[in-house]
Write a structure and sequence with these properties.
The chain is mostly helical and 406 residues long. The protein has one domain (16-397): Growth Hormone, Chain: A, CATH 1.20.1250.20. The chain has 17 helices and no strands. The chain has helices at 16-33, 43-50, 54-57, 59-74, 84-104, 108-121, 124-135, 141-170, 174-193, 205-218, 220-250, 255-265, 271-280, 284-304, 309-334, 342-392, 394-397. The longest helix is centred in the last third of the chain and has 51 residues, at 342-392. The two termini are 38 Å apart.
């Protein structure tokens, strides 16, 4: 039976169907976005398998993020044009095919090509987050988006642990086949569960793409939020792209132990609902500044305390917490700008974010080869400082925040 869209402002989280859809969206976002991060803790194994250097292996992360960034620009806007449920289920089938190709790749070049496809089709997650904002009652938008983004971020953080454990037991290729099966199952689940949301078929794809530039030009808050999150995600990518090398070479951890370390960092996903609560109560701007400063400080800690596993673990938790919290507060603000253009707004925002992540992954890999862990970590620490400078411009353009009425 075809589901219908729930859009009445009176709907609240007490509605059982709305709660169930929120849970499904959170799970779906987590499982699909995890595809972008399975390779990060496996780079040492991938380098050995394809007989390449560690520096060359980091290109896997960059190419996956480039694929994702391209899809954010050219595929994500389709969420404003086509019916969302059909769009995401078809993309998930494409993801499953790309994952199988990745797992079967006989040469490194083929694996890189498959990685681009995996990144591009995994854009499903960013189609679902605006859908959550569309379903949510306006007064609870931060809460709804926070829960869905919490699932997405948990997928990011747990992906490294899961892939490490699977690789330790059955080899690094196995995770790609497991995820392919999950994508097919997820396509069936979303087809049966998601409400329909028709796009604006009166528009055209070229006009839709052209409007992205117009939206970015007209919305300074979107530009500011996009730049700040790009620096935050750049720091995040720099840390997680090369931390596996530091843990294996510097601390002599096994692949399974690297998975445990990544699991500790997953505690930062708890910040997503906190970010939603702060945004709903009028503290999004102040909280964002604190989160950006915390991200920079955590990477300074990671650089100076890299001889201690405890210091690295604390830095991982603080970094993940800061990035996650800032993400939710940013999306709360930008999704309120234009209800009819949330997918395109997400294109600007997440496209900028993942371009920043892709560039940072490549730079961090090169710096790690030349200067070791400290060089890569200090590079990551410098990025949020740029975001903090841009964030400070919001202090001059907006009034002092007051908590929202209860």
């Amino acid at each position: 039976m075809t589901a219908t869209l729930l859009t009445r402002p009176a709907e609240t989280t007490a509605n059982p169907r709305l709660r169930m859809i929120t849970l499904v969206l959170a799970v779906a976002c987590g499982l699909t976005v995890a595809n972008l991060y399975y390779a990060q803790p496996l780079l040492d194994l991938i380098a050995t398998s394809f007989h390449i250097t560690q520096g060359a292996a980091t290109v896997v992360v960059t190419m996956t993020q480039i694929g994702y960034a391209l899809a954010l620009i050219f595929v994500l806007p389709l969420g404003d044009l086509f019916e969302n449920r059909a769009l995401v289920t078809r993309l998930l089938v494409g993801t499953a095919i790309a994952l199988v190709l990745g797992g079967l790749s006989p040469a490194y070049g083929a694996f890189l090509a498959a990685s681009v496809l995996i990144g591009a089709t995994s854009v499903v997650a960013q189609i679902l987050v605006p859908l959550a904002a569309h379903l949510a009652p306006p007064a609870e938008r931060g809460r709804f988006v926070g829960r869905v983004v919490g699932g997405l971020l948990l997928g990011i953080l747990l992906a490294r642990s899961v892939s490490s454990f699977v690789a330790a037991a059955w080899g690094w290729r196995t995770i790609y086949f497991i995820s392919a099966v999950l994508m097919v199952g997820l396509a069936v689940l979303l087809r049966r569960t998601l409400p329909t949301r028709a796009g604006n078929r009166a528009s055209s794809y070229p006009r839709l793409l052209g409007s992205i530039v117009e939206i970015a030009r007209a919305e300074p808050a979107l530009r500011r939020r996009a730049f700040c999150q790009a620096t935050m995600f750049g720091a995040f990518s720099a840390f997680w792209t090369v931390i596996g090398y530091e843990l294996i070479d510097g601390h002599h951890l096994s692949q399974a132990a690297v998975g445990v370390f990544a699991l500790v960092g997953a505690a930062g996903a708890a910040a997503a609902p906190l970010g939603g609560w702060l945004a709903d109560h009028g503290y999004g701007r102040t909280g964002s500044g604190v989160a950006i400063a915390l991200a920079s400080g955590s990477l300074v800690l990671a650089a100076l305390g890299h001889h201690s596993l405890i210091a690295l673990a604390v830095a991982a938790v603080l970094l993940d917490l800061a990035v996650n919290c800032h993400q939710v507060m940013s999306q709360h603000e930008i999704y309120a700008l234009r209800e009819d253009a949330r997918a395109r707004i997400n294109t600007v925002y997440m496209g900028s974010t993942f371009i920043g992540g892709a560039i940072s992954s490549a730079v961090a890999g090169a710096l790690h080869s030349a200067y070791g862990w400290v060089g890569a970590a200090l590079f990551g620490a410098a990025l949020p400082v740029l975001g903090l400078i841009v964030w400070s411009t919001s202090l001059r353009s907006r009034p002092v925040e007051m908590p929202a009425a209860a």
